[in-house]
Amino acid sequence: MSARHTGPVAATTPTFIGMPKFPALAREALGNTQQRRNLAFATQTIRGKRAAVVGEVGDWEALRLNGAAVKDEVLAHLDDYLIQLEDKLTAAGTTVHWARDAAEANRIVVELVRGKGVDEVVKVKSMATQEIELNEALEEAGIAAWETDLAELIVQLGNDRPSHILVPAIHRGRAEIRDIFRTRMAAAGRPAPETMTDEPAQLAEAARLHLREKFLRAKVGISGANFAIADTGTLVVLESEGNGRMCLTLPETLISVVGIEKVLPTWEDLGTFLQLLPRSSTGERMNPYTSIWTGPADGDGPQETHVVLVDNGRTHVLADPVGRQALRCIRCSACLNVCPVYERAGGHAYGSVYPGPIGAVLTPQLRGIDNPIDASLPYASSLCGACFEVCPVRIDIPRLLVNLRTQVVDAHRGRPSAEGLAMKSAAWMFAEPGRWASMQKGITASSKLLRGKRTLQHLPWPGSVWTDARNAPVPPRETFRQWWQRTHGESR
Amino acid sequence: MTTAREEVLARIRAAGAARPVEVPPAPEPSPQPAPETVDLFAENVADYRAVVERLAESAVPQRISSALGQYGVTSVVVPDGLPSGWLTDAALRVLADERLTAYDLDAIDAVVTQAAVGIAETGTIVLDHTAGQGRRALSLVPDVHLCVIRADQVVGDVPAAVRQLRPAVETGRPLTWISGPSATSDIELNRVEGVHGPRHLHVLIVGDEA
Amino acid sequence: MTRVALFATCFNDAMWPGTPIATVTLLERLGVEVDFPAAQTCCGQMFTNTGYADEAIPRVRSFVEVFGGYDAVVAPSGSCTGSVREQYADLARRSGDAGLSRAVAEVAPKVYELSEYLVDVLGVTDVGASFPHRVTYHPTCHSLRMLHVGDRPLRLLREVRGIDLVELPAATECCGFGGTFAMKNADVSVAMGSDKVRHIRDTGAEIVVAGDNSCLAHIGGLLGRQRAGVRTMHLAEVLASTAEASA
């Protein structure tokens, strides 16, 4: 370790702290056949859509290279860009706040909302506010936070946790959603229509009616931002349903919670990112609505705008020269959609608001690797590389996973473990070709003992982990090295 | 006591990330639009299940009237600066935007606006909310959005639109990018048009009857 | 005279000798004189990918010493080749030994996965093989997405006489092996493998072929447990084969 001072990690919140490791959570998820069907169908559909619209772009790779480098440039000079952003936001009439961690960000938002004398806010879907658990903080302060994205509404009404960055209720089927709406909507406002079926159009209509009264009376809106432009002081939010426009336009006060890595240097950089994000995310040429604002506009929308810039572990990520590229992430979720592990384990198994491959590299860097769930995440991958292939900002997720695995092992060195012992013995054996050749004599001897068996069905632990579901190969009677010696004689 | 601002900036500087980064150029924006650019725009807007029509300037008032009739519209709000004479249908209740509340807008069926830029490659309409386009709530709360865009406002791709919009952003104008009607895919990734924004987007492209 | 070394890989050497034997047979048939430096052991991938970088670094050092003098190194494994080409640089950097980094930069680009060596260096796709069986091909992740071997293995297989090559549905999806992933996340690994095996069985192939015996051990283990009657074979073994159709 270098002597570099790293920013502190974010706290693993009570929601996730007692969680078992990924393998146990995944095993449970694998048993949920309805969820597996929902996930397999949804991820395969969106993979196809993404591939089609990415294929339309003449030079996708050039866009990716540009996007990755623009983000690297931001990370390399993040202090300068944040100061520039702050200046421009302030000049445009926005009040800028800084927060070291989730608790501080939540305190700022709660005080702002209290200052307006209201007991409710409308919210646009935002990963940053989920990460800091703002809704819980608002609730504690007696303020109702209404999630307005359809999937977030499903999750909130169902007292559930999101399982996907873009489609948080991806694990729910239409019948489950109908039941949630029927039983829970009334307690939160306008009840679901008596005649509502489980047709997606009818469910969407129920959400429209339920939320409209909340939009119309809202005094305070809360958002995140997909991008914050340093040279103009502009914030950008992409969405589909129009709930974002409602929250960003109708209230008198708008509070935007923005991770410090969301900065883009110039307005023109949007030209790249507004191509990369929608095509990677929803698999559309463009998402239905993008709202762009530069402070309050005269007679149009909120006349009071705030931005809360949040660290919450991001500077800790920044201090890792390999791992910092995770901060390029634009939360598109393409990596989730192609990940064979995510498709089967589902989002909840990742024990954080960031599931899938990006979560497996981001969460342990934001929160550290002290908790069992966080330390197990870097291993929640077969390193197949499908995530890196689709990432619009070229985050080399497999490389980052391996980097994090090394950190997990290094942190546990000196503590005895079966795995550590096995690795040490293997390292000792491979260190001398003579030892390896002797080992092979043992292998062929065991083969002779097995006398003609062609496959092994039951091995003792830890081999049983393999043979519970898979046959194991029987060692050969002659290894390659022995064959070479016999047929090609002494080599150099 | 150090402020959060000072501390976050100090953490960033301590992280040792500063280094020169060579940023390869983004692919060049497409050159100025050709006739086929407008064709592509029309095709891509329609692909979002918006209704697209192309017509001559002189036909606009008549077509607005028939289009609004299609949706059973009885009331329509018009932004300041929309060409007078576009809404001539006596059967329509036409309201100017005179301090209408969100509740008022919720009771109005439709809005007619102009646009700032169209993007062919993505079928996107950009409003910069200047004259003829109205403040943002106008094109959001009513259920039908009829948008009139001139063919010469259509650019080829996203980077070209972004470049053109810098002056609007620098003067503090908000922008709304619209690609089709409001939609969601949150239920089993099944696309449903029409959630909170206008459920009907009707686009009239003026000035180049193809 | 170019000097070509075989990097058998430890797993093949000890458990699947048929693959390096086939590689030698094939290369010799194509007129390549192959050397097997006996000092080779393991590339260290198992250590690297499990997080044991300190244990992997001596493997890097040994690899560049053993293979440094050759013009080309051929390995019948996508993932071991990938480990050398794509991961050694990070390990050398961690070691802090600039000399090791230089040695890696020199040696790593000369290490070829078998299909790369045949197609790119020898310039052949017809290797004179004959294999009258119904075969499907699974592209392993590291050969596909780390090495970008593309359709090279398929071009080689298409030229094999008598072969009935059938396309594998969802071919590019991971089989779920993933090294120690197969043990640490055995449930997900098996779930992924079960889908792979279902696709393989759907093709009606007698044999599933791939460029990595590690993935094939996982796939074959599942096929065996299901008594599917589908065999696994390494690409090298098919390409080395000169079996004629039985009458």
UniProtKB/TrEMBL annotation, chain A:
<keyword id="KW-0677">Repeat</keyword>
<keyword id="KW-0813">Transport</keyword>
<feature type="domain" description="4Fe-4S ferredoxin-type">
    <location>
        <begin position="326"/>
        <end position="395"/>
    </location>
</feature>
<dbReference type="Pfam" id="PF02589">
    <property type="entry name" value="LUD_dom"/>
</dbReference>
<dbReference type="Pfam" id="PF13183">
    <property type="entry name" value="Fer4_8"/>
</dbReference>
<keyword id="KW-0249">Electron transport</keyword>
<dbReference type="GO" id="GO:0006089">
    <property type="term" value="P:lactate metabolic process"/>
</dbReference>
<dbReference type="Pfam" id="PF11870">
    <property type="entry name" value="LutB_C"/>
</dbReference>
<keyword id="KW-0408">Iron</keyword>
<keyword id="KW-0479">Metal-binding</keyword>
<keyword id="KW-0004">4Fe-4S</keyword>
<dbReference type="InterPro" id="IPR024185">
    <property type="entry name" value="FTHF_cligase-like_sf"/>
</dbReference>
<dbReference type="GO" id="GO:0046872">
    <property type="term" value="F:metal ion binding"/>
</dbReference>
<dbReference type="InterPro" id="IPR003741">
    <property type="entry name" value="LUD_dom"/>
</dbReference>
<feature type="domain" description="LUD">
    <location>
        <begin position="84"/>
        <end position="310"/>
    </location>
</feature>
<protein>
    <submittedName>
        <fullName>Iron-sulfur cluster-binding protein</fullName>
    </submittedName>
</protein>
<dbReference type="InterPro" id="IPR024569">
    <property type="entry name" value="LutB_C"/>
</dbReference>
<dbReference type="InterPro" id="IPR037171">
    <property type="entry name" value="NagB/RpiA_transferase-like"/>
</dbReference>
<dbReference type="GO" id="GO:0051539">
    <property type="term" value="F:4 iron, 4 sulfur cluster binding"/>
</dbReference>
<dbReference type="InterPro" id="IPR017896">
    <property type="entry name" value="4Fe4S_Fe-S-bd"/>
</dbReference>
<feature type="domain" description="Lactate utilization protein B C-terminal">
    <location>
        <begin position="407"/>
        <end position="486"/>
    </location>
</feature>
<keyword id="KW-0411">Iron-sulfur</keyword>
From TrEMBL, chain B:
<protein>
    <submittedName>
        <fullName>Lactate utilization protein C</fullName>
    </submittedName>
</protein>
<feature type="domain" description="LUD">
    <location>
        <begin position="42"/>
        <end position="206"/>
    </location>
</feature>
<dbReference type="Pfam" id="PF02589">
    <property type="entry name" value="LUD_dom"/>
</dbReference>
<dbReference type="InterPro" id="IPR003741">
    <property type="entry name" value="LUD_dom"/>
</dbReference>
<dbReference type="InterPro" id="IPR037171">
    <property type="entry name" value="NagB/RpiA_transferase-like"/>
</dbReference>
<dbReference type="InterPro" id="IPR024185">
    <property type="entry name" value="FTHF_cligase-like_sf"/>
</dbReference>
